[in-house]
């Protein structure tokens, strides 16, 4: 489900490894939250989050989620928020090595990292929740606005847009592009350069720069809006989600 791989120096790569598309279920988000929280105690001075070549993460495991009742759905989203909060509040820098497609939950995860390196070419990224019938909660919209600005975030989120890697780079949704084979390497190199700086000064400045994010996401208790759960179980949303699952399960031509 997760591979923990040592990289140069004190950098730990945490690789999503839930075949076939790194879809996020409760077990994966819990494991990732704990891995991020435990990494500094295990000697990490920096973290790279990666996925499989061609697919960073397909987002939430919708087929599993729609089988849950309201309490189960709430528990999943609370776990998902806690995972994002762990990345947001990490005391060591984090880089998203976006090794391929990264829709929905995969894109959300990357928003909380310090830096984003994405594979260029055919790969797409974005918060396409609206396209599958889900609203985007304010705390996630806030994280998006921090990266691309208010107006650009409004346009992307309201349309549920997925953009290719080059466009994502042009609008600042990702910081750097690399070949799919070199994404992790570039992420490690960027992080390595950061860690060469005087540690106390860098970490103190980083903490100040991210204080607004940590203020919202440092403790995710109660952060999930009950209205989001109401929306999830609304007739329209359930119809769209079930249609999506039917398409996913249909035999390939």
Account of the 3D structure:
- With 253 residues, the protein is an alpha/beta fold.
- Helices cover 49% and strands 16% of the residues.
- The strands form two sheets. Strands 1-2-3-5-7-10 form a six-stranded mixed beta sheet, with helices on both faces. It has a four-stranded mixed beta sheet with strand order 4-6-8-9.
- A hairpin with a 4-residue loop joins strand 1 and strand 2.
- The longest helix is centred in the first third of the chain and has 19 residues, at 70-88.
- The chain is globular, with a radius of gyration of 17 Å.
According to DSSP, the number of beta strands is 10
Strand neighbour order, sheet with most strands: 1-2-3-5-7-10
| Helix-strand makeup class | alpha/beta
Helix count, per DSSP?
12
User: Any low-confidence stretches, pLDDT <50, length ≥5?
Assistant: none
* Number of domain modules: 1
* Proportion of beta-strand residues: 15-25%
Query: For the terminal residues, how far apart are their CA atoms?
Result: 29 Å
Which fold name corresponds to the CATH topology? 2-enoyl-CoA Hydratase, Chain A, domain 1
Radius of gyration from CA coordinates = 17 Å
Mean pLDDT: 96
Question: Level of helix content?
Answer: 40-55%
InterPro entries: ClpP/crotonase-like_dom_sf, Enoyl-CoA_hyd/isom_CS, Enoyl-CoA_hydra/iso
Protein name: Enoyl-CoA hydratase/isomerase family protein
Family: Belongs to the enoyl-CoA hydratase/isomerase family.
């Amino acid at each position: 489900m997760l591979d923990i791989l040592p990289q140069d120096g004190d950098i730990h790569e945490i690789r999503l490894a839930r075949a076939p598309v790194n879809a996020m279920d409760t077990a994966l988000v819990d494991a990732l939250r704990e891995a991020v929280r435990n990494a500094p105690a295990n000697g990490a001075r920096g973290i790279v989050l990666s996925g499989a070549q061609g697919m960073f993460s397909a987002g939430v495991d919708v087929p599993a989620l729609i089988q849950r009742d309201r309490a189960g759905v709430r528990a999943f989203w609370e776990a998902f928020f806690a995972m994002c909060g762990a990345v947001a509040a990490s005391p060591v820098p984090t880089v998203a090595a976006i090794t391929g497609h990264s829709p929905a939950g995969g894109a959300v995860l990357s928003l909380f990292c310090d830096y984003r390196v994405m594979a260029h070419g055919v790969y797409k990224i974005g918060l396409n929740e609206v396209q599958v019938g889900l609203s985007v909660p304010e705390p996630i919209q806030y994280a998006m606005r921090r990266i691309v600005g208010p107006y650009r975030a409004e346009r992307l989120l309201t349309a549920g847009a997925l953009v290719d890697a080059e466009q994502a780079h042009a609008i600042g949704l990702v910081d750097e592009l690399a070949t799919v084979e070199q994404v992790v390497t570039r992420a490690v190199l960027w992080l390595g350069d950061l860690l060469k700086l005087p540690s106390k000064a860098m970490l103190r400045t980083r903490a100040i720069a991210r204080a607004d994010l940590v203020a919202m996401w440092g403790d995710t208790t109660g952060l999930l809006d009950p209205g989001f759960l109401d929306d999830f179980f609304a007739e329209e949303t359930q119809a769209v989600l079930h249609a999506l699952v039917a398409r996913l399960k249909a035999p390939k031509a």
